[in-house]
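Minutes, project check-in
Item: structure for the 117-residue chain
Input as provided by the requester:
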Amino acid sequence: MTTNLVDKHCQPCEGGVEPLSADQVQELRQALHEDWTVSDDGLEISRYFEFPAYSRSLGFANAVAWIAISEGHHPVLTVSYGSCDVSYTTHAIGGLSDNDFICAAKIDRLAAGDAGA
């Protein structure tokens, strides 16, 4: 699998495929910012972001929502004053897919301040 995730686009997933194996998850995890964590059960990745003000948290959450809509793959967002927690899993397959890592990579680019093309 390629680690150039930010250049990929999510593929529709309606089930019928296996979730990524633990080895595949660890390989793809290496392509993300070190703050992304894999849940103990291996079914979810998440990252916690901190901001100096609520308005920045909301702005970030809206930008993440734009990525989600553009890719057709949606995270769980928990927005609080000064923070936003982003979690991904692929519900249709009961685990992680390439889509989760593609979106996480795009969020890493956003957080780094490089909107890219």
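Outcome recorded: The beta strands are 37-38, 45-50, 76-80, 83-88.
No further action items on this chain.
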